[in-house]
Amino acid sequence: MMPADLPNRSVEFFDTQFRRQAAAGEYALNPFEQAVLPFLSGETLDLGCGLGNLSLAAAARGCMVLALDASAAAVESLAGRAAAGVLPVQARQADLRNYAPSQEYDSVVAIGLAMFFACPDAHAMIARIRAAVRPGGVAAVNVLIEGTTFMGMFTPGDYCLFGEHSLEEAFAGWAVEYLKFDAFPAPGDTVKRFCTMVARRSR
Ligand SMILES: C[S@@+](CC[C@H](N)C(=O)[O-])C[C@H]1O[C@@H](n2cnc3c(N)ncnc32)[C@H](O)[C@@H]1O
Hints:
CATH architecture: 3-Layer(aba) Sandwich
Shape: globular
CATH class: Alpha Beta
CATH superfamily: Vaccinia Virus protein VP39
Bound molecules: S-adenosylmethionine
Number of helices: 6
Number of strands: 7
Mean pLDDT: 95
Structural class: alpha/beta
Helix content: 25-40%
């Protein structure tokens, strides 16, 4: 996929942001990435990896990571940093809307991705994440939830605000090892509300 083929306005938004951050060397883990990092191990799939700060941190802790994102800027930056650090991260550009992993992983991560699809696609993605986790492995997922009023990064008609308990329901029967709700103020007196969950599949 070439930059001109970015799948929607949301990816354009992030591609521009990532170019600026890469130029400025801004590579800090965000709070959601920091929270899920200790739960990751083994073969890891990072969906919507962005600049790949979590992928690199997981690789530094011994994970072997496949990191996917539609943003060319993100993937170029991550591939360069992984090579420079000799870290086991494969970074690839991909449109993940209908992406189905071709194997199971010990850890499947999607921090801040699924909300950028209309709800049927978003929930289907969560189901595919669940199906791609090996017995004993984890899914680490973060989404925007109802009550969010900041719309600036969405493509109109192509986004999903999850229900407050959607992730817990989607991973029913798994052991919830981390669950947190956050609210952050956003431009124009709006708010972003997030749910972050790490759930472990039984062996
Ligand atoms: C909120 S950012 C999260 C990035 C990273 N996980 C993090 O926590 O910093 C959302 C990411 O989803 C990616 N994304 C959005 N729509 C996508 C699509 N259709 N296919 C692949 N990636 C997409 C964007 O490029 C961006 O990197």
